[in-house]
Amino acid sequence: MELKKYIESNSKRFLDELLDLLRIPSVSADPAYKEEVFTAAEYVKNSLEAAGVDHAEICQTDGYPIVYGEKIIDPAAPTVLVYGHYDVQPADPLNLWDSPPFEPVIKKTANHPNGAIFARGSADDKGQFYMHVKAFEAMLSNGQLNCNVKFMIEGEEEVGSENLDVFVRNNQEKLKADVVLISDTSMISLEHPSVTVGLKGLAYMEVEVTGPNKDLHSGTFGGAVANPINILCKMISSLHDEDNRITIPGFYDNVEDYSEAYRNQLNKAPFDEGDYRKKLDIKETYGEKGYTTIERVGIRPTLDVNGIWGGYIGEGAKTVLPSKANAKISMRLVPNQDHKAIAKLFEEHFKSIAPPAVKVKVVPHHGGQAAVIPTDSIGYKAAEAAIDEAFGKKAIPTREGGSIPITALFQQVLGLDPILLGFGLDTDGIHSPNEHYGVDNYLKGIETIALFFKHYHRLSNKDE
Length: 464
Hints:
Layout: H1 2-9, H2 11-22, H3 34-51, E1 55-59, E2 66-71, E3 79-85, E4 105-107, E5 116-118, H4 126-141, E6 148-154, H5 162-170, E7 179-182, E8 194-199, E9 201-210, E10 216-217, H6 218-221, H7 228-237, H8 260-266, H9 273-280, H10 293-298, E11 302-310, E12 320-321, E13 324-333, H11 339-352, E14 359-368, E15 371-372, H12 378-391, E16 396-399, H13 406-414, E17 418-420, E18 436-438, H14 439-460
Parallel strand pairs: 3-6, 3-7, 7-17, 8-16
Antiparallel strand pairs: 1-2, 2-6, 4-5, 5-18, 8-15, 9-13, 9-14, 10-12, 11-13
């Protein structure tokens, strides 16, 4: 009760601090925001120091820095490594935001009757990792911190975490812990709290199709010279068959076919397809034939075009046959699909389906492996107990379609299974205009994280 009272009495300050962090446009994908990304790292370091860590530092990398902080209360006590990221997605298209993306506002919504914070990064991941900073402060201030804590907050998650891989491999002793705790996922709802036990991998590609050596007059040359946009559209269209299965040879070779019993269990999670369609303003869901929406998102690989451009897209008309057309394509992968192998299969196939009239270039961007989290560990049981105490309900295990590439890295290099204790909602619009994060979710997350520490210490039996 003391902990809960502390959170309630400091809730306005907790919110104000988060709003200040959200005002920093730390977009890692765009070099124009380089200084702001470094500014965000400084803010995180200062926040950790203010919360009470013994030591905090900004660790430089070949890209953006990693903020590290720690509080060691007892070398014999269990150690929790907290991971998060302070970088955010680009805010484009800006004209679709109801309020400026880096000027956070709190507004009531149907899903968040007590208000939601509208800003880029509010749910992904500033609002979620900052819960850990405030939970740490609350525990320390009330004499209830019973585990050692290490924080590792990076600035490149949205561009693949390439330098985090190097940092983790080079600092295994520094990062030594008993469990990794991450809040960068969602839950079904506050009424149906859940814990994520599976994430997809990712292979992200960029393609370029080139026809003539310069833009041409579409009347003079149309019909005689290949139009790269037309060709690119045909090539992309061919990547799925009539059942919406991906046509790349070898793509499904390592995809697991789950039993009917497992699929039935997966589909028991609370899900209203009619409400799902209504919220998205779509008449029907769409995807691979023979699978439910929950299965398509959680256990089936996907391929999507994330952006496509070429030719003239300005005001008015310009009758041009473009020289080039480009697209960005991502594939969300399931366990046993190696992202590097899939990227190679994609490149070989995409080049093979191009007609001789064009040249094709394929550039792989970032990627990562899928991860499955066991549900019999002390960490998972602590998460279940924390949710049960905070919400008065049993946690529902779910599998998500998103990717956090470093989860597999933690498993492989540190030998730790991350606990994915997220508090966002699928409707929070991450990566989209009007991203938001519920005030109740933020404050409830702080409370639940503190309870995780309590139960992790209890279950680990290291105090006996």
